[in-house]
Amino acid sequence: MAAKLSNLQPQKKAILIALCVSVVLMLAKFAAYFITHSNAILTDAAESIVNVLASSFAFYSIYLATLPKDENHPYGHGKVEFFSAFIEGVLIAIAGVIIILKSGYDLIYPRPIVQLFEGASIIGVTGVVNLIVGYYLINTGKNHKSITLEADGRHLLTDAITSGGLVVGIILIKLTEIFWLDSVISILLGLYILFSGYKLTRRSVGGLMDESNVDLVENIIDILQKNRKDPWIDVHNLRAQQYGADLHIDCHITLPYYFDLNRVHQEISEIDKTINGNADRKTELFIHTDPCLPACCNYCHMKECPVRQEDFRAEIKWTIENATKNLKHFDQ
């Protein structure tokens, strides 16, 4: 348990840094808005409120993810990270809608804009800071398999991109003196923010609904294929669920029917060691064993099988197509 908590300290540190930076940048952006009265800058400032709320919830969700399994949560608390990402995506989308409505109103009823270069300078600095912190969060999230950190990092990258576009737009407004461009740019950035919120929400809902992660399943099947042993006749009905940084896999393995319980336990333990020794995250396995049938003989590798009824003809390579079906391979 101590090792697990120690492993999660970088996640807490990263999200705490993001939270503190978000508060400072939010204040800077609102200062830029009060200086300029620019809707486009208000767009960026409003999104910063979302950054602060999202980082606060992300910090709490990472704390929950560190809690050990208990009677009410036998799989641990890792799925709270998907919920955290969902909340962040919804907040981003709401900010996008509000920005579009406010900018649409001001496009019809414009107001004076002043000191644009000063405002652009502040927004430019905040964009660079968000870019640095965003990449830091994404890298930390990938290293520690935290969807919460990745989501918060991608949110900050979105913020950095909108800040960059905003600076370009402000300079364009100043040079052309076409002030209605302020609201148009704000609406475009609002649409981009809305789309970013949708993508993040879609990914989190997929995780909450245990949507199949094809890349993850293919990786596990590839590990089994490369390290397969003769007694492992076939693997089928393989499914994977992600709970935060942990992975849970259940599958069926066909073994020779004459193996006793000790030998079956030995083979299952070997499969567990194979996956946990090669996968890039902690994996818990639930393996159901099936006895072989005479129809398995033609693809069974057992060299000195006392009950073989048919010669070995060819190996059936394990792929996502056959390993995920609930059928022995001769039935497929």
From TrEMBL:
Keywords: Membrane, Transmembrane, Transmembrane helix, Transport. GO terms for cellular component: plasma membrane. SUPFAM superfamilies: Cation efflux protein cytoplasmic domain-like, Cation efflux protein transmembrane domain-like. It is found in: Membrane. Pfam families: Cation_efflux, ZT_dimer. One of its GO terms (molecular function) is cadmium ion transmembrane transporter activity. It comes from the Bacteria. GO terms for biological process: intracellular zinc ion homeostasis. The chain crosses the membrane at residues 14-36, 48-68, 80-101, 113-136, 156-173, 179-198. Residues 15-209 form the Cation efflux protein transmembrane domain. Residues 217-292 form the Cation efflux protein cytoplasmic domain. Its main location: membrane. Gene3D superfamilies: Cation efflux protein transmembrane domain (1.20.1510.10), Cation efflux protein, cytoplasmic domain (3.30.70.1350). The keyword rRNA processing does not apply. It is a multi-pass membrane protein. PANTHER family: MITOCHONDRIAL METAL TRANSPORTER 1-RELATED. Belongs to the cation diffusion facilitator (CDF) transporter (TC 2.A.4) family. This is Cation transporter. It comes from Pedobacter hiemivivus.
